[in-house]
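Dear support,

We are seeing what looks like truncated structure output for some complexes. This example has two components. We would appreciate it if you could run it in full and send us the complete C-alpha coordinate output so we can diff it against ours.
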Amino acid sequence: PPTAHASCSTRKKKACHLPKLPASVPSSRTQMASTSPEPAATETGDSVKIRRLQIADRERGFLPLLSQLSSCPDLTESEFAACFADLAALGDDHVILVAEDPAAAPERRILSTGCLFVERKFLRGGGKVGHVEDVVVDAAARGRGLGLRVVRRLVEIAKGAGCYKVILDCTPELRAYYAKCGFVEKGVQMAVYF
Amino acid sequence: PPTAHASCSTRKKKACHLPKLPASVPSSRTQMASTSPEPAATETGDSVKIRRLQIADRERGFLPLLSQLSSCPDLTESEFAACFADLAALGDDHVILVAEDPAAAPERRILSTGCLFVERKFLRGGGKVGHVEDVVVDAAARGRGLGLRVVRRLVEIAKGAGCYKVILDCTPELRAYYAKCGFVEKGVQMAVYF
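Here is the complete output from our reference environment:
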Protein backbone atom coordinates (compact mmCIF):
# COMPACT_ATOMS: atom_id res chain seq x y z
CA PRO A 1 0.00 0.00 0.00
CA PRO A 2 1.09 3.60 -0.45
CA THR A 3 2.61 5.33 2.52
CA ALA A 4 0.19 7.23 4.66
CA HIS A 5 1.73 10.52 3.75
CA ALA A 6 1.58 9.95 0.03
CA SER A 7 -1.95 8.64 0.29
CA CYS A 8 -3.37 11.17 2.67
CA SER A 9 -1.64 14.30 1.62
CA THR A 10 -3.54 14.55 -1.63
CA ARG A 11 -6.91 14.63 0.01
CA LYS A 12 -6.95 18.11 1.41
CA LYS A 13 -5.69 19.57 -1.79
CA LYS A 14 -8.47 17.94 -3.73
CA ALA A 15 -11.13 18.88 -1.25
CA CYS A 16 -10.04 22.47 -0.88
CA HIS A 17 -8.85 23.48 -4.32
CA LEU A 18 -10.36 22.87 -7.69
CA PRO A 19 -7.95 20.58 -9.46
CA LYS A 20 -5.83 22.01 -12.23
CA LEU A 21 -7.24 20.59 -15.39
CA PRO A 22 -5.59 20.18 -18.75
CA ALA A 23 -6.85 22.80 -21.16
CA SER A 24 -8.76 20.19 -23.09
CA VAL A 25 -10.85 19.07 -20.14
CA PRO A 26 -14.11 20.95 -19.66
CA SER A 27 -14.56 22.96 -16.48
CA SER A 28 -15.81 21.17 -13.42
CA ARG A 29 -18.76 23.52 -13.57
CA THR A 30 -20.15 21.38 -16.34
CA GLN A 31 -18.29 18.07 -16.10
CA MET A 32 -17.01 15.93 -13.26
CA ALA A 33 -13.44 17.06 -12.70
CA SER A 34 -10.46 14.78 -13.00
CA THR A 35 -6.79 15.31 -12.30
CA SER A 36 -5.83 11.78 -13.29
CA PRO A 37 -5.25 10.65 -16.84
CA GLU A 38 -8.66 9.90 -18.19
CA PRO A 39 -9.29 7.42 -20.95
CA ALA A 40 -11.16 8.74 -23.93
CA ALA A 41 -14.82 7.85 -24.10
CA THR A 42 -15.00 4.18 -24.96
CA GLU A 43 -16.90 3.12 -28.02
CA THR A 44 -18.85 0.01 -27.26
CA GLY A 45 -20.06 -2.36 -29.91
CA ASP A 46 -23.28 -0.44 -30.30
CA SER A 47 -22.02 3.15 -30.42
CA VAL A 48 -22.78 3.77 -26.76
CA LYS A 49 -20.10 5.87 -25.03
CA ILE A 50 -19.04 5.55 -21.39
CA ARG A 51 -18.00 8.91 -19.92
CA ARG A 52 -18.22 11.06 -16.82
CA LEU A 53 -21.46 12.75 -15.90
CA GLN A 54 -21.96 16.20 -17.38
CA ILE A 55 -24.28 18.83 -16.05
CA ALA A 56 -26.20 18.73 -19.33
CA ASP A 57 -27.12 15.10 -18.58
CA ARG A 58 -30.07 16.41 -16.62
CA GLU A 59 -31.65 17.03 -20.04
CA ARG A 60 -30.64 13.57 -21.28
CA GLY A 61 -32.66 11.50 -18.86
CA PHE A 62 -30.21 11.03 -15.99
CA LEU A 63 -32.75 11.48 -13.19
CA PRO A 64 -35.53 9.36 -14.79
CA LEU A 65 -32.89 6.63 -15.17
CA LEU A 66 -31.97 6.85 -11.47
CA SER A 67 -35.65 6.66 -10.58
CA GLN A 68 -35.64 3.11 -11.96
CA LEU A 69 -33.30 2.26 -9.06
CA SER A 70 -34.81 4.15 -6.14
CA SER A 71 -36.88 7.19 -5.27
CA CYS A 72 -35.51 10.05 -7.33
CA PRO A 73 -37.68 13.15 -7.35
CA ASP A 74 -36.97 15.59 -10.12
CA LEU A 75 -34.52 18.39 -9.35
CA THR A 76 -34.80 21.87 -10.78
CA GLU A 77 -31.97 23.06 -12.94
CA SER A 78 -30.45 25.01 -10.05
CA GLU A 79 -30.90 22.15 -7.57
CA PHE A 80 -29.24 19.79 -10.03
CA ALA A 81 -26.39 22.26 -10.56
CA ALA A 82 -25.89 22.58 -6.79
CA CYS A 83 -25.72 18.80 -6.33
CA PHE A 84 -23.41 18.49 -9.31
CA ALA A 85 -21.04 21.18 -8.05
CA ASP A 86 -20.87 19.69 -4.57
CA LEU A 87 -19.99 16.27 -5.92
CA ALA A 88 -17.59 17.65 -8.54
CA ALA A 89 -15.75 19.52 -5.77
CA LEU A 90 -14.67 16.12 -4.44
CA GLY A 91 -12.55 15.67 -7.56
CA ASP A 92 -11.34 12.15 -8.18
CA ASP A 93 -12.77 11.03 -4.83
CA HIS A 94 -16.24 10.99 -6.43
CA VAL A 95 -16.89 9.77 -9.95
CA ILE A 96 -20.21 9.30 -11.71
CA LEU A 97 -20.06 7.53 -15.06
CA VAL A 98 -22.84 7.36 -17.62
CA ALA A 99 -23.41 5.33 -20.78
CA GLU A 100 -24.72 7.61 -23.51
CA ASP A 101 -26.36 6.58 -26.75
CA PRO A 102 -25.92 9.55 -29.08
CA ALA A 103 -28.41 8.03 -31.52
CA ALA A 104 -31.31 8.08 -29.05
CA ALA A 105 -33.84 10.87 -28.52
CA PRO A 106 -32.17 13.68 -26.55
CA GLU A 107 -34.10 13.08 -23.34
CA ARG A 108 -33.43 9.33 -23.39
CA ARG A 109 -29.73 9.23 -24.17
CA ILE A 110 -28.40 8.21 -20.74
CA LEU A 111 -28.86 4.44 -20.62
CA SER A 112 -26.78 3.43 -17.62
CA THR A 113 -24.95 5.01 -14.72
CA GLY A 114 -22.83 4.07 -11.75
CA CYS A 115 -20.92 5.91 -9.06
CA LEU A 116 -17.60 5.47 -7.24
CA PHE A 117 -16.61 7.25 -4.10
CA VAL A 118 -13.26 6.85 -2.43
CA GLU A 119 -13.03 6.48 1.32
CA ARG A 120 -9.81 7.27 3.21
CA LYS A 121 -8.81 5.30 6.26
CA PHE A 122 -6.18 5.19 8.98
CA LEU A 123 -6.05 1.44 8.32
CA ARG A 124 -3.51 0.08 5.85
CA GLY A 125 -1.14 3.00 6.20
CA GLY A 126 -3.73 5.56 5.21
CA GLY A 127 -5.39 3.24 2.71
CA LYS A 128 -8.23 3.94 0.31
CA VAL A 129 -11.37 1.92 -0.40
CA GLY A 130 -13.62 2.41 -3.40
CA HIS A 131 -17.38 2.19 -2.91
CA VAL A 132 -19.54 1.49 -5.96
CA GLU A 133 -23.08 2.84 -5.61
CA ASP A 134 -26.18 3.58 -7.63
CA VAL A 135 -25.65 1.30 -10.62
CA VAL A 136 -28.64 1.12 -12.95
CA VAL A 137 -29.38 0.26 -16.58
CA ASP A 138 -32.45 1.57 -18.39
CA ALA A 139 -35.07 -1.16 -18.60
CA ALA A 140 -35.15 -0.88 -22.40
CA ALA A 141 -31.36 -1.22 -22.69
CA ARG A 142 -30.69 -4.25 -20.51
CA GLY A 143 -28.82 -7.26 -21.84
CA ARG A 144 -26.33 -5.16 -23.80
CA GLY A 145 -23.62 -5.24 -21.14
CA LEU A 146 -23.80 -1.51 -20.45
CA GLY A 147 -23.97 -1.87 -16.67
CA LEU A 148 -21.00 -4.21 -16.60
CA ARG A 149 -19.00 -1.79 -18.72
CA VAL A 150 -19.78 1.02 -16.32
CA VAL A 151 -18.86 -1.09 -13.29
CA ARG A 152 -15.64 -2.36 -14.84
CA ARG A 153 -14.60 1.21 -15.61
CA LEU A 154 -15.37 2.27 -12.03
CA VAL A 155 -13.21 -0.59 -10.75
CA GLU A 156 -10.36 0.50 -13.06
CA ILE A 157 -10.63 4.05 -11.78
CA ALA A 158 -10.54 2.84 -8.17
CA LYS A 159 -7.47 0.73 -8.87
CA GLY A 160 -5.79 3.67 -10.57
CA ALA A 161 -6.59 5.86 -7.56
CA GLY A 162 -4.67 3.47 -5.31
CA CYS A 163 -7.60 1.76 -3.61
CA TYR A 164 -6.70 -1.60 -2.09
CA LYS A 165 -10.24 -2.87 -2.68
CA VAL A 166 -13.61 -1.91 -4.13
CA ILE A 167 -16.83 -2.91 -2.41
CA LEU A 168 -20.53 -2.72 -3.18
CA ASP A 169 -23.80 -3.92 -1.74
CA CYS A 170 -26.46 -5.67 -3.80
CA THR A 171 -29.39 -8.01 -3.58
CA PRO A 172 -28.54 -11.73 -3.51
CA GLU A 173 -29.97 -12.07 -7.04
CA LEU A 174 -27.22 -9.83 -8.40
CA ARG A 175 -24.29 -11.92 -7.08
CA ALA A 176 -23.67 -13.52 -10.46
CA TYR A 177 -23.97 -10.19 -12.24
CA TYR A 178 -21.20 -8.61 -10.18
CA ALA A 179 -19.13 -11.77 -10.28
CA LYS A 180 -18.69 -11.02 -13.99
CA CYS A 181 -16.83 -7.89 -12.89
CA GLY A 182 -14.56 -9.86 -10.57
CA PHE A 183 -16.47 -9.29 -7.35
CA VAL A 184 -16.74 -12.03 -4.74
CA GLU A 185 -19.15 -12.24 -1.83
CA LYS A 186 -17.54 -10.96 1.35
CA GLY A 187 -20.19 -10.30 3.95
CA VAL A 188 -23.59 -9.09 4.95
CA GLN A 189 -25.01 -5.62 4.43
CA MET A 190 -26.99 -4.26 7.38
CA ALA A 191 -29.05 -1.07 7.42
CA VAL A 192 -31.03 1.28 9.63
CA TYR A 193 -33.70 3.37 7.89
CA PHE A 194 -34.86 6.62 9.45
CA PRO B 1 -36.15 14.02 2.65
CA PRO B 2 -34.54 17.45 2.56
CA THR B 3 -34.68 19.35 -0.69
CA ALA B 4 -31.73 18.87 -2.97
CA HIS B 5 -30.67 22.44 -2.57
CA ALA B 6 -30.73 22.41 1.18
CA SER B 7 -28.97 19.08 1.29
CA CYS B 8 -26.37 19.67 -1.36
CA SER B 9 -25.54 23.28 -0.82
CA THR B 10 -23.76 22.65 2.44
CA ARG B 11 -21.27 20.23 0.97
CA LYS B 12 -19.02 22.56 -0.91
CA LYS B 13 -18.78 24.91 2.00
CA LYS B 14 -17.72 22.12 4.30
CA ALA B 15 -15.27 20.65 1.85
CA CYS B 16 -13.66 23.95 0.93
CA HIS B 17 -13.67 25.95 4.13
CA LEU B 18 -12.79 24.96 7.62
CA PRO B 19 -16.03 25.16 9.56
CA LYS B 20 -16.50 28.00 11.99
CA LEU B 21 -16.28 26.46 15.40
CA PRO B 22 -17.64 27.71 18.68
CA ALA B 23 -14.85 29.12 20.80
CA SER B 24 -15.08 26.19 23.17
CA VAL B 25 -14.40 23.58 20.51
CA PRO B 26 -10.73 22.73 19.98
CA SER B 27 -9.21 23.47 16.60
CA SER B 28 -9.62 20.92 13.84
CA ARG B 29 -5.84 20.70 13.86
CA THR B 30 -6.12 18.59 16.97
CA GLN B 31 -9.72 17.37 17.08
CA MET B 32 -12.23 16.26 14.49
CA ALA B 33 -14.19 19.37 13.60
CA SER B 34 -17.91 19.72 14.06
CA THR B 35 -20.32 22.47 13.10
CA SER B 36 -23.32 20.65 14.53
CA PRO B 37 -24.29 20.69 18.18
CA GLU B 38 -22.18 18.04 19.78
CA PRO B 39 -23.22 16.22 22.90
CA ALA B 40 -20.78 16.33 25.76
CA ALA B 41 -18.66 13.24 26.25
CA THR B 42 -20.95 10.56 27.59
CA GLU B 43 -20.08 8.91 30.85
CA THR B 44 -20.74 5.22 30.59
CA GLY B 45 -21.27 3.02 33.60
CA ASP B 46 -17.57 2.35 33.89
CA SER B 47 -16.12 5.87 33.45
CA VAL B 48 -15.33 5.33 29.77
CA LYS B 49 -16.03 8.40 27.65
CA ILE B 50 -17.23 8.40 24.03
CA ARG B 51 -15.85 11.36 22.08
CA ARG B 52 -14.42 12.37 18.73
CA LEU B 53 -10.93 11.33 17.75
CA GLN B 54 -8.18 13.74 18.76
CA ILE B 55 -4.77 13.94 17.21
CA ALA B 56 -3.24 13.04 20.57
CA ASP B 57 -5.00 9.67 20.38
CA ARG B 58 -2.03 8.39 18.40
CA GLU B 59 -0.27 8.27 21.79
CA ARG B 60 -3.25 6.58 23.43
CA GLY B 61 -3.24 3.37 21.42
CA PHE B 62 -5.54 4.27 18.51
CA LEU B 63 -3.49 2.53 15.81
CA PRO B 64 -2.75 -0.65 17.82
CA LEU B 65 -6.51 -0.85 18.44
CA LEU B 66 -7.26 -0.58 14.71
CA SER B 67 -4.67 -3.28 14.04
CA GLN B 68 -6.99 -5.69 15.87
CA LEU B 69 -9.45 -5.15 13.00
CA SER B 70 -7.21 -5.17 9.93
CA SER B 71 -3.70 -4.43 8.77
CA CYS B 72 -2.71 -1.13 10.35
CA PRO B 73 0.97 -0.29 10.06
CA ASP B 74 2.21 2.35 12.46
CA LEU B 75 2.21 5.93 11.18
CA THR B 76 4.81 8.49 12.13
CA GLU B 77 3.60 11.54 13.96
CA SER B 78 3.62 13.60 10.76
CA GLU B 79 1.92 10.86 8.73
CA PHE B 80 -0.76 10.56 11.38
CA ALA B 81 -1.21 14.33 11.43
CA ALA B 82 -1.57 14.41 7.64
CA CYS B 83 -4.23 11.67 7.68
CA PHE B 84 -6.00 13.38 10.55
CA ALA B 85 -6.05 16.76 8.82
CA ASP B 86 -7.34 15.30 5.57
CA LEU B 87 -10.22 13.56 7.32
CA ALA B 88 -10.94 16.53 9.60
CA ALA B 89 -11.22 18.74 6.51
CA LEU B 90 -14.35 16.80 5.58
CA GLY B 91 -16.06 18.29 8.62
CA ASP B 92 -19.27 16.59 9.63
CA ASP B 93 -19.12 14.36 6.57
CA HIS B 94 -16.49 12.23 8.32
CA VAL B 95 -16.62 11.39 12.02
CA ILE B 96 -14.37 9.07 14.00
CA LEU B 97 -15.48 8.32 17.54
CA VAL B 98 -13.39 6.70 20.25
CA ALA B 99 -14.14 5.26 23.67
CA GLU B 100 -11.51 6.42 26.15
CA ASP B 101 -10.79 5.01 29.58
CA PRO B 102 -9.03 7.80 31.46
CA ALA B 103 -8.08 5.36 34.21
CA ALA B 104 -6.01 3.15 31.90
CA ALA B 105 -2.30 3.44 31.14
CA PRO B 106 -1.76 6.35 28.71
CA GLU B 107 -0.89 4.17 25.72
CA ARG B 108 -3.90 1.88 26.25
CA ARG B 109 -6.68 4.39 26.82
CA ILE B 110 -8.53 4.05 23.51
CA LEU B 111 -10.69 0.95 23.93
CA SER B 112 -13.08 1.20 20.98
CA THR B 113 -13.54 3.17 17.80
CA GLY B 114 -15.91 3.48 14.87
CA CYS B 115 -16.23 5.74 11.85
CA LEU B 116 -19.09 7.39 9.95
CA PHE B 117 -18.81 8.94 6.55
CA VAL B 118 -21.67 10.64 4.79
CA GLU B 119 -22.28 10.00 1.11
CA ARG B 120 -24.25 12.48 -1.03
CA LYS B 121 -26.47 11.28 -3.84
CA PHE B 122 -28.66 12.58 -6.64
CA LEU B 123 -31.20 10.00 -5.49
CA ARG B 124 -33.88 11.01 -2.99
CA GLY B 125 -33.70 14.68 -3.87
CA GLY B 126 -30.02 14.98 -3.09
CA GLY B 127 -30.19 12.53 -0.22
CA LYS B 128 -27.50 11.47 2.20
CA VAL B 129 -26.47 8.00 3.34
CA GLY B 130 -24.29 7.26 6.35
CA HIS B 131 -21.67 4.53 6.11
CA VAL B 132 -20.38 2.99 9.32
CA GLU B 133 -16.87 1.58 8.99
CA ASP B 134 -13.95 0.34 11.06
CA VAL B 135 -15.70 -0.56 14.29
CA VAL B 136 -13.47 -2.39 16.76
CA VAL B 137 -13.30 -3.00 20.50
CA ASP B 138 -10.05 -3.83 22.28
CA ALA B 139 -9.90 -7.56 23.00
CA ALA B 140 -9.46 -6.90 26.72
CA ALA B 141 -12.49 -4.57 26.87
CA ARG B 142 -15.13 -6.66 25.08
CA GLY B 143 -18.44 -7.44 26.72
CA ARG B 144 -18.79 -3.98 28.24
CA GLY B 145 -21.00 -2.59 25.48
CA LEU B 146 -18.43 -0.06 24.31
CA GLY B 147 -18.75 -0.96 20.63
CA LEU B 148 -22.53 -0.71 20.72
CA ARG B 149 -22.29 2.68 22.38
CA VAL B 150 -19.96 3.90 19.66
CA VAL B 151 -22.21 2.55 16.89
CA ARG B 152 -25.38 3.97 18.42
CA ARG B 153 -23.75 7.38 18.66
CA LEU B 154 -22.64 7.17 15.02
CA VAL B 155 -26.21 6.33 14.02
CA GLU B 156 -27.49 9.33 16.01
CA ILE B 157 -25.00 11.59 14.27
CA ALA B 158 -26.06 10.27 10.86
CA LYS B 159 -29.70 10.87 11.69
CA GLY B 160 -28.91 14.36 12.88
CA ALA B 161 -27.04 15.04 9.66
CA GLY B 162 -30.17 14.25 7.64
CA CYS B 163 -29.21 10.82 6.33
CA TYR B 164 -32.19 8.74 5.25
CA LYS B 165 -30.37 5.52 6.20
CA VAL B 166 -27.14 4.19 7.67
CA ILE B 167 -25.50 1.08 6.28
CA LEU B 168 -22.57 -1.13 7.20
CA ASP B 169 -21.01 -4.38 6.11
CA CYS B 170 -20.09 -7.15 8.51
CA THR B 171 -19.48 -10.85 8.77
CA PRO B 172 -22.58 -13.03 9.17
CA GLU B 173 -21.55 -13.75 12.77
CA LEU B 174 -22.05 -10.08 13.67
CA ARG B 175 -25.69 -9.85 12.51
CA ALA B 176 -27.04 -10.17 16.05
CA TYR B 177 -24.51 -7.66 17.37
CA TYR B 178 -25.62 -4.95 14.97
CA ALA B 179 -29.27 -5.89 15.39
CA LYS B 180 -28.89 -4.54 18.93
CA CYS B 181 -28.26 -1.16 17.33
CA GLY B 182 -31.39 -1.42 15.18
CA PHE B 183 -29.74 -2.69 12.00
CA VAL B 184 -31.51 -5.25 9.82
CA GLU B 185 -30.01 -7.38 7.07
CA LYS B 186 -30.52 -5.82 3.68
CA GLY B 187 -28.24 -7.44 1.14
CA VAL B 188 -24.94 -8.94 0.19
CA GLN B 189 -21.56 -7.26 0.30
CA MET B 190 -19.32 -7.99 -2.70
CA ALA B 191 -15.68 -7.01 -3.06
CA VAL B 192 -12.76 -6.90 -5.47
CA TYR B 193 -9.28 -6.91 -3.89
CA PHE B 194 -6.33 -5.49 -5.83
